[in-house]
Structure prediction request, 160 residues.
Amino acid sequence: MLPLIALFLAAFAFGTTEFVIAGVLPEVAQGLGVSVPTAGYLVSGYACGIAIGGPLLALATGKVSRKTLLIGLTVAFTLGQVACALAPDFTAMLLLRIATAVAHGCYFGVAMVVAVSLVREDQRGRAVAIILSGLTVPTSSACPPAPRSAACGAGARPSG
Prediction:
């Protein structure tokens, strides 16, 4: 069960990153000196990174051990978040979010395969549900209170 909890926690971090920016978009736009519609590309770019880059990375890393790949993806994600927080401008932030999203997209495919391999056949659905709850829990618990506290961590620069 402990490995499933670790996979859930990583999924929670990925999910929070994906969804929290929508709640702080005006602050991010202001901090990066762009309009809110332009800052919206940070959301769209992330989605494209997941949908296009994630599967391509999964295909490209098919021969890498799953454990090594999950650790590498989690490290890449963490470093990407630090880099996003330090991004000097909108373009850098967009490119860093897309790169981080590629790791996110690949992570979920690999995590599902690992999760079902860790449990008996009759528990596979539960294992997948635990990992996927890492995406659903942030939308209902972490993201609503996060906007103010996450504004600086999402790349916004405090004003005044």
Confidence is low (pLDDT under 50) at residues 144-160. The chain has one domain: 2-142. Residues 90-117 form the longest helix (28 residues). The radius of gyration is 16 Å.
